[in-house]
Design a protein that fits this description.
By secondary structure, the protein is α/β, with parallel strands linked by helices. The protein contains six helices and seven strands; from the N terminus they run E-H-E-H-E-E-H-E-E-H-E-H-H. Strands 1, 2, 3, 4, 5, 6 and 7 form a seven-stranded mixed β-sheet that branches.
Length: 192
């Protein structure tokens, strides 16, 4: 099997690769400005950035290596919620999300040499209504500060999530079922 390279510093993506049986992979993180053209839908935005990351990562890899890149964003009513700038920004985001549905979109690209495949996954996330005191207590854990939308579904942020429509792992930052199917097209079979 060709060497796999994860072009991401995300510990959650590294953990998810290991969970699906990819233990031997390198991490090489390209520097990419995460910009995108106007007028794209949320799935198109994350797909575009994922492709840009894959193209930049290709310069760090041998042609036979299989590169995996991903970009995850949270959207509320088509507005993008990135990582909070500070605790006030986290409170603003969490307040806007509570009691409502939002969408988590991830673009995933698998690239080997000049061959590149990009897909996107969208998951609906429903937050329960929450008191401001609960949101402040969550913010004090520090968990929201490095996460798009100011929460982590795999941690204490799960206490705010009422339900999901779609891929749970997508909300963590990597839609593993979709990635597994994509890797099969590059000769990597994870269920043997």
């Amino acid at each position: 099997m060709a060497k796999i390279v994860l072009a991401s510093a995300s510990p959650r993506r590294q953990e998810l690769l290991r969970r699906i049986g990819i233990e031997d992979f390198d991490i090489r993180v390209p520097q990419v400005e995460e910009t995108f053209p106007e007028g794209l839908t949320p799935p198109e935005v994350v797909a575009h950035i994922s492709r840009e990351k894959a193209d930049a990562a290709a310069a760090l890899c041998a042609p036979e290596e299989i590169v995996i890149t991903a970009d995850t964003m949270v959207f509320l009513d088509e507005a993008r919620l990135g990582k909070p700038r500070d605790e006030q920004d986290a409170l603003r985001m969490l307040t806007a999300l509570q009691g409502r549905r939002h969408t988590v979109c991830t673009g995933v690209t698998v690239r080997q040499g000049d061959r590149r495949l990009t897909e996107s996954e969208s998951t609906g996330v429903y937050f329960r209504p929450a008191a401001q005191a609960e949101l402040l207590a969550y913010i004090k854990t520090g968990e929201p500060m490095d996460k798009a939308g100011a929460y982590g579904v795999q941690g204490k942020g799960a206490l705010l999530v009422e339900r999901l429509d779609g891929d749970f792992f997508n909300v963590m930052g990597l839609p593993v079922m979709r990635l597994g199917r994509m890797l099969e097209r590059f000769g990597v079979t994870l269920l043997k």
